Amino acid sequence: MLLIKNGLLYTMEKNEPFYADMLLENGKITEISENIKLSNDIPVIDAKGFNVFPGFIDAHSHIGICEDKTSVQVDESNEGTTPVTATVRGIDAVNPMDGAFHNALASGITGVMVGPGSANPIGGQFAFIKTHGRCVDDMVVLEPAAIKIAFGENPMTNYGLNGNMPSSRMGTASVIREELYRAKQYFDNTENQQADFSLECYRPLFDGKIPLKAHVHRADDIFTAIRIAEEFGLSLTLDHCTEGHLIAEKIAESGFPAIVGPSLASRNKKEVAQSDFKTAGVLKKAGVTVALTTDHPVSRIQYLPLCAGLAAKEGLGEVNALRAITIDAARICRVDHRLGSLEVGKDADIVIINGNPLEIASTVEFTIINGEIAWRRS
Fold first, then answer.
1. In angstroms, what is the C-alpha Rg of the chain?
2. CB–CB of 241/260 below 8 Å?
3. Cα dihedral angle (3, 54, 108, 17), rounded to 10 degrees?
């Protein structure tokens, strides 16, 4: 049990912050009200003068897989031996001892969507995990949480330069279509059919429980991802969405959300030449649900609040920028029943900050996960 007193609460569901106390029990928020009084033996955090937010969420990351402070030998983010590796699971490569988890906690980041990279047209399964723990199984919130697909330069370069398919955007789309068609046929004809491990991984996708998670930068790749998802009646998130500001209305028409970033990174490929912090704001104004990503380690995960601040400055606005790393990110990742806002019954994942989290001089004082202090500034 833990009591947070006198904090200014930003619930991310109510428009205006308010002063209140918050009681945490058994890993959940159990009460939010003024002047909660308990016996003296209950631990108390006096948050007077501080702002209290739900823990921040990075909606696309390779933390723990492509490890911090290590050589390329410890980058296990791609099973780059064959174009389709849908059966691989990100959690099997996540090392909770990766120092980046400490950086995440010190920045108020309590939840991350983590999984394979973008070398393959179909790369494998993402999981949503918390950022505190020693065993990844204890950190899992949702697994599987998405199936990664990738368009554009990465799969073309990884295979085409070796004389294999795909070597073109057409080839990439064809590989993805063929595999999804094979999976659809499998689920449409289940009578007297033996279970196929290579296809069973798609069951939550075709059941509508998880989305395709599409690595897309260029506008034409974004349209191809939408086209394929609609052909098979599947959910989709548009990850990176670098040229999304050029086609914002069309993305809004699709109804699919965007996970924008990493905008705090170099324009080291042709397809990211249009990278800009304005993208998130343009998409949001068009009606697209938006989250932000550092794509750690492309940008380091602790810069997520800074990215939100820069996106706010370039048109997303302060409230929407905060939502893009809290409740909107949680909704896109399908964990909003537990995370993303300060509400009774939700997980007690909380960050207490001295200042505005979108401003660089602000400091995280406490990061709380499952109702326990996971990091404290002192």
1. 21
2. yes
3. -90
pLDDT digits over 312-349, tens only? 999 999 999 999 999 999 999 999 999 999 999 999 99
Sign of CA dihedral 166, 169, 172, 178: negative
Q: How much of the chain exceeds pLDDT 70, in percent? A: 98
CB neighbour list of residue 253: distance below 8 Å, 6 or more residues apart: none
Q: What is the 3-state secondary structure (H, E, C) of 57-80?
A: EEEEECCCCECCCCCHHHECCCCC
- Residue (of 242, 237, 204) closest to 329 by Cα position: 237
For 347, which DSSP code? B
277-293 CB burial, b ≥16 within 10 A, e <16: bebbbbbbbbebbbbbb
* β-strand pairing of 350-354 with 51-54: antiparallel
β-bridge pairing 109-114 and 363-369: unpaired
* Residue 33, number of CB atoms within 10 A of its CB: 10
Angstrom distance (rounded) from CA 301 to CA 103: 7
Residue found by looking up tokens 């020693």 in the block: 134
- Distance (Å, rounded) from C-alpha 180 to C-alpha 38? 56
Q: What are the pLDDT digits (tens) for 203-243?
A: 999 999 999 999 999 999 999 999 999 999 999 999 999 99
The residues near 140 (Cβ < 8 Å, ≥ 6 apart) are: 91, 127, 128, 129
Helix locations, 203-293, DSSP H: 203-206, 219-232, 248-254, 279-286
Distance (Å, whole) CA 168 – CA 170: 5
The three-point CA angle 235-275-221 to 5° equals 40
